[in-house]
């Protein structure tokens, strides 16, 4: 079999057969025997440079960042998550595509939360094992706007970072605390106590009668 004439004929019928392919000779022989059908068979079987390049293509940072942002997106939500009291039933489908807030925030102390939402009613099949089944209408919440807000547990910790002024709940009302410095002070002032001929114990914030010389200063006598 002469190579040059077959090669020229095959290149005309099958453009994907180029001289830089190692298997080009085999393609030429196949095209010569089977015609353009052989060319199509080789085109499907062997990957081209363009297909190989697509598999190794790197997604740019800006695309990755935009796709991961906090926004409304379709999310599959388990029905039992929305209706935990109906676990005795089987639902078809068991999860639903709902528009929900999801994504990443620039600060790990923040989370993606909804700021606007609305309700949507969907018809689903509800079944009970070995019993009848029926179509029911269930209401689900969908989100329409999102934003990044500080996580509740982080916010709570920041608001209550001070140690309590007293260990007993009964005496809490006697103190005021500066949230910035955590300094505790008494609600009642010493001057106010003196007008009632009482003395303020600044350690306990209790008001008591002025002690005699033979009494302790912290005598817990209430007015």
From TrEMBL:
Q: So which domain of life are we looking at? A: Eukaryota
Q: Which residue ranges does the record assign to the Platelet-derived growth factor (PDGF) family profile domain?
A: 57-153
Q: Which InterPro entries match?
A: Cystine-knot_cytokine (IPR029034), PDGF/VEGF_dom (IPR000072), PDGF/VEGF_growth_factor (IPR050507), VEGF_C (IPR027928), VEGF_C_sf (IPR036841)
Q: Does the keyword Transmembrane apply?
A: no
Q: Which GO terms describe its molecular function?
A: chemoattractant activity; growth factor activity; heparin binding; vascular endothelial growth factor receptor binding
What's the family?
Belongs to the PDGF/VEGF growth factor family.
Protein name per its UniProtKB record: Platelet-derived growth factor (PDGF) family profile domain-containing protein
Q: Which organism is it from?
A: Engystomops pustulosus
């Amino acid at each position: 079999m002469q190579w040059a004439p077959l090669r020229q004929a095959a290149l005309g019928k099958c453009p994907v057969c180029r001289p830089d392919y190692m298997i080009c000779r085999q393609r030429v022989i196949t095209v010569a025997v089977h015609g353009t059908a052989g060319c199509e068979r080789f085109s499907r079987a062997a990957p081209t440079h363009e297909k190989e390049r697509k598999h190794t293509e790197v997604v740019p940072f800006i695309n990755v960042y935009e796709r991961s942002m906090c926004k409304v997106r379709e999310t599959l939500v388990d029905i039992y998550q929305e209706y935990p009291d109906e676990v005795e039933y089987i639902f078809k489908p068991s999860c639903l595509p709902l528009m929900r807030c999801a994504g990443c925030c620039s600060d790990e102390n923040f989370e993606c939360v909804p700021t606007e939402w609305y309700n949507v009613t969907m018809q689903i099949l509800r079944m009970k094992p070995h019993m009848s089944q029926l179509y029911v209408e269930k209401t689900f919440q969908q989100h329409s706007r999102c934003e990044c807000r500080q996580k509740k547990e982080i916010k709570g910790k920041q608001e209550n970072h001070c140690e309590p002024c007293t260990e007993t709940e009964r005496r809490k009302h006697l103190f005021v605390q500066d949230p910035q410095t955590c300094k505790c002070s008494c609600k009642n002032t010493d001057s106010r106590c003196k007008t009632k001929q009482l003395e303020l114990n600044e350690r306990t914030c209790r008001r008591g009668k002025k002690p005699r010389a033979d009494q302790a200063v912290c005598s817990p006598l209430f007015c």
